[in-house]
Structures are given as C-alpha cells and as structure tokens.
Write a structure and sequence with these properties.
With 101 residues, the chain is α+β, with helices and mostly antiparallel strands. The protein has one domain: Lysozyme (Orthogonal Bundle). The chain contains four helices and three strands, in the order H-E-E-E-H-H-H. The chain has a three-stranded antiparallel β-sheet with strand order 1-2-3. It is globular and about 40 Å long. The model has no long low-confidence stretch (mean pLDDT 94).
C-alpha cells in the first residue's frame, strides 16, 4: 500500500513520461522500458503485458506484473519511491482497519 501511495497516490490511470522516452503506468508506476509494452518505446516486456492493461480497474495485470518485479533482482528496490519513502520505515499503519486476521 505504501508503494501504491507514493508512486501514484492510488491512481490506477496515472502515466508518467520519463526523460529516457519510457513511461511509468498505473497504480505501481510500472516502467515500459523493462516491464510492459506501450508500443512507443523499446521494451523488454518482462511481464508480457500491454502497458494499457496495467491500468485496468481490476488490477490483476498490475498485481501480477508487480509480483514479477518483486521477484526480480533488486526486489522492491526496483522502485525508487519505495527506497525513498517506504523501505526501512514502519508500514503497519497502512493496514489499520483492514481486519486481515
């Protein structure tokens, strides 16, 4: 939840254009150079997904791709905003009121 907040303020349709010509998409700001294909810039497309699908309201493609990113070398640190605002900080307040037990 911290990641989704600091990357997009929970905005599933957010698109951020980067200086290198790639873009970041959706609630987790998934990058088109590595993880999804936006058909505008070169993409490794490691998640095998269109960037537009990352912004679908059901979040399935975004979550599936985010899990792949977390499993890759670097893990959560693949997101700069995670390193700056979430890593090493208490995160339990993000789950307050969720009744997960």
């Amino acid at each position: 939840l911290c990641l989704a907040f600091v990357e997009s303020n929970f905005n599933i349709s957010k698109v951020h254009e980067n200086a290198d010509g790639s873009s970041d998409y959706g609630i987790f700001q998934i990058n088109s150079h590595y993880w999804c294909n936006d058909y505008r810039s070169h993409s490794e497309n490691f998640c095998h997904v269109d960037c537009q699908d990352i912004m679908h309201p059901n979040l399935l493609s975004a979550i599936t791709c985010a899990k792949k990113i977390v499993s890759a070398p670097g893990g959560m640190k693949n997101w700069v905003e995670w390193k700056l605002h979430c890593s090493g900080r208490p995160l339990n307040h993000w789950l307050t009121g969720c009744n997960l037990g």
